[in-house]
């Protein structure tokens, strides 16, 4: 290793979680969704096997061209003091989620024993799909409170390591959009 010049600081190397989450955020910049840019990676060991982002199917007008296709759904949840309450959820049905695209464009054999890095905590549908995909870990940055409790419970049932990167800051060039 060459000697440093006088006064030159040693550069701190990023840990693997930060490295892969930075890549997930950069992948998310490909999204044209005006509501949320999401990027996902498939990693086995320290080898990057695939990337994906959220958006309309290939060759179809996306939300920035044709507008979002928002549907509203009601879900019963446990509220204050255990009382059931109805919660309204809105979601775009034009967009294929980053996790779904990742599963569509990677092979099952590559997913066995792998980790998924995703900018956002998976929704219930994506969590179900990931639970059956062969992965052993999901690492995410931004929470998704609408489905958090049931997704966490599912991951615990499946024995999938499910962890949030607290204290992480996305690269400034990612410019991730988030509208709830």
Automatic annotation (TrEMBL):
<dbReference type="InterPro" id="IPR016473">
    <property type="entry name" value="dCMP_deaminase"/>
</dbReference>
<dbReference type="GO" id="GO:0004132">
    <property type="term" value="F:dCMP deaminase activity"/>
</dbReference>
<dbReference type="GO" id="GO:0005737">
    <property type="term" value="C:cytoplasm"/>
</dbReference>
<protein>
    <submittedName>
        <fullName>dCMP deaminase</fullName>
        <ecNumber>3.5.4.12</ecNumber>
    </submittedName>
</protein>
<dbReference type="InterPro" id="IPR016193">
    <property type="entry name" value="Cytidine_deaminase-like"/>
</dbReference>
<feature type="binding site">
    <location>
        <position position="126"/>
    </location>
    <ligand>
        <name>Zn(2+)</name>
    </ligand>
</feature>
<keyword id="KW-0378">Hydrolase</keyword>
<feature type="active site" description="Proton donor">
    <location>
        <position position="99"/>
    </location>
</feature>
<comment type="similarity">
    <text>Belongs to the cytidine and deoxycytidylate deaminase family.</text>
</comment>
<keyword id="KW-0479">Metal-binding</keyword>
<feature type="binding site">
    <location>
        <position position="97"/>
    </location>
    <ligand>
        <name>Zn(2+)</name>
    </ligand>
</feature>
<dbReference type="InterPro" id="IPR002125">
    <property type="entry name" value="CMP_dCMP_dom"/>
</dbReference>
<dbReference type="Pfam" id="PF00383">
    <property type="entry name" value="dCMP_cyt_deam_1"/>
</dbReference>
<dbReference type="InterPro" id="IPR016192">
    <property type="entry name" value="APOBEC/CMP_deaminase_Zn-bd"/>
</dbReference>
<dbReference type="InterPro" id="IPR015517">
    <property type="entry name" value="dCMP_deaminase-rel"/>
</dbReference>
<dbReference type="InterPro" id="IPR035105">
    <property type="entry name" value="Deoxycytidylate_deaminase_dom"/>
</dbReference>
<dbReference type="GO" id="GO:0008270">
    <property type="term" value="F:zinc ion binding"/>
</dbReference>
<feature type="binding site">
    <location>
        <position position="123"/>
    </location>
    <ligand>
        <name>Zn(2+)</name>
    </ligand>
</feature>
<keyword id="KW-0862">Zinc</keyword>
<feature type="domain" description="CMP/dCMP-type deaminase">
    <location>
        <begin position="15"/>
        <end position="152"/>
    </location>
</feature>
<dbReference type="GO" id="GO:0006220">
    <property type="term" value="P:pyrimidine nucleotide metabolic process"/>
</dbReference>
């Amino acid at each position: 290793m060459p000697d440093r010049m006088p006064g030159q600081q040693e550069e701190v190397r990023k840990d693997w979680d930060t490295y892969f989450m930075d890549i997930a955020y950069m992948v998310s910049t490909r999204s044209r969704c005006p509501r949320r840019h999401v990027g996902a990676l498939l990693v086995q060991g320290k080898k990057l096997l695939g990337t994906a982002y959220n958006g309309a199917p290939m060759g179809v007008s996306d939300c920035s061209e044709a507008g979002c296709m928002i549907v509203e759904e009601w879900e019963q949840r446990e509220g204050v003091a255990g009382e059931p309450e109805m919660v309204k959820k809105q979601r775009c049905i034009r967009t294929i989620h980053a996790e779904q695209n990742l599963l569509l464009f990677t092979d099952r054999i590559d997913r066995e024993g792998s980790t998924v890095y995703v900018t956002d905590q998976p929704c219930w549908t994506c969590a179900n799909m990931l639970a059956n995909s062969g992965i052993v870990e999901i690492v995410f940055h931004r929470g998704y409170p609408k489905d958090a409790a049931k997704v966490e419970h599912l991951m615990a049932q499946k024995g999938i390591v499910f962890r949030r990167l607290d204290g992480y800051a996305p690269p400034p060039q990612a410019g991730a959009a988030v509208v709830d």
